[in-house]
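A student in our group prepared the protein record below, which I am reviewing. What it holds is a sequence and that sequence's fold in token form. My question to you is simply how this chain folds and whether the tokens agree. Do not assume that whoever made the record got everything right. I have pasted the whole thing underneath without changing anything:
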Amino acid sequence: MQMNTPPRSTIRLTRRGRFALVMTGAVVAGTAVAVPLLLTLDTDEEARPTSLVIPEGRRAGQIYEAVDKALELPSGTARKSLVRANLRLPNDAEGNPEGYLFPATYPLDTKATPESLLKAMVDTANTKFHKAPIAAGAQRNAMNVYQAVTIASIVQAEAATKADMGKVARVVFNRLERGMPLQMDSTINYALNRTTLRTTEADTRIDSPYNSYQRMGLPPTPIDSPGEDALRAAISPPPGDWLYFVTVKPGDTRFTADYAEHERNVAEFNRNQQSASTAK
């Protein structure tokens, strides 16, 4: 995939399925609700947690923090343990486990360490990713498994619902095939290491390999840990010519290949946002 910097377009994809217009002096803002990483406790409230639940869509940094909290270790311990963990990562990852800390429930026995937990997550990811459906699906779409995981991570971040995942994946494929920049706000959000999203014109000009406004192709790594639904969507998206999508209101995400139609959908989205702000 080409990595040349394209001219900026007047359209952008936004997190959780919103696709909005970038206009001088105007910003369409969305809020990403941060769901905490879960610790499953014994019946004794004072007892140490017995398991660590990693939800879908969490970034590596959030997972490191959860491991430190679960094991009652100083902040930063899990991140520092990467050099000792000997994780089985693909060459494309260059030692970065982003996308390979698989979302699942991991037991916390008395012998659990940051290294053992991170290794378990990566081993689980490898087991899932290299089974026939994922590996064969990646090959069928002329990409390797790492690229499929990267697309799945974008789908995980962008799709408002499980039902939307396949269509979001198809938008990604269609844009890549047409040589269009992805222009995903989820990648900007990742570059800026934030969870509350407010994308401005200045944000879209940041110097980052994750700036999918300025860079062609996929970001260099996944941007979160995708779940199995997102992975299935990434390797088997439904047929369609969609290039744009916007969540006009909760439960109503509209996909289209027609820019004029998309502009009308965006206008409706903006009216709904304005009405919601007025009602507060």
